[in-house]
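Below: protein 1.
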Amino acid sequence: MFIPSKPAKYGIKVQILTDATTHYMVNAEIYCGTEIETAEPKSKLSNPTRVVLRLAQYVEGTKRNITGDNRYSSVELEVLKEKKTYVGTLKRNKRGIPLEFLPHRNRQVDFSIFGFSASNTIVSHVPKKGKGVSLLSSMHPSSSINQDTLKPEIIHFYNETTSGVAALFAKCAKYSTSRRTNRWPVAIFHPS
């Protein structure tokens, strides 16, 4: 797969669930491009939501939090209620986001607006002029703001817990065991 924004532009895409503190891989699956056909009926959930649910089934009932980026975050992840919570950034075009929470150019710097439902909190924050970020959390039921940085606590928690996959890749790149091969099983099970 070709991903121009990554340091290794070509390769096999693997979707990974890692522990944010130890940087160990908990679960992973190879991205095949399309959904694998199964005998069960097709779900009404989107592909990224189904990926999160499949990866998270190994931490079922452990009262952990899952932090994801805007590709995997959606209001649909409300189904993660089984003793797990979710925090993640939201894309502008995701379904279920009220218009008030989309970034607006005329908002002041450090402006935050919160929205609450029975199980989720959505926050829209303006860190710089003309920029905005929206986050979804099922872990933070309040609108607490850090008085030192004027950012919502949801953003601080997100920034603290997003480094798991990046740290795992940094450790794997530091100790390379690569060998040249054209066989895909070797490329998967003995990565560089």
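Below: protein 2.
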Amino acid sequence: MKNLLMFLMLILLIFPSIVQVRAQPRFWTALNFELEFRGDGTVLVEAKQHPFDYEGRSLMDNATLVNLMKEDESDMIQYILLMFSKRP
């Protein structure tokens, strides 16, 4: 029993130093779309995103957050395509 307790204490001391966790940033995004319907039947969509913290302060100067938003561009394109789909 004593050996098991010592082993568990050793694991608990080592384990936190091995695992690295990065919290997801807390923010909300203002999202606006500008649509330009063209004569040939196509639509130009301009998606404007602006991140804010929970107190309403702009987070555009946070380079890490802006890069995170850029990484999610492909997801945003999929959402834009869904706006024009008859059967999403």
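Residues 26-83 form one domain.
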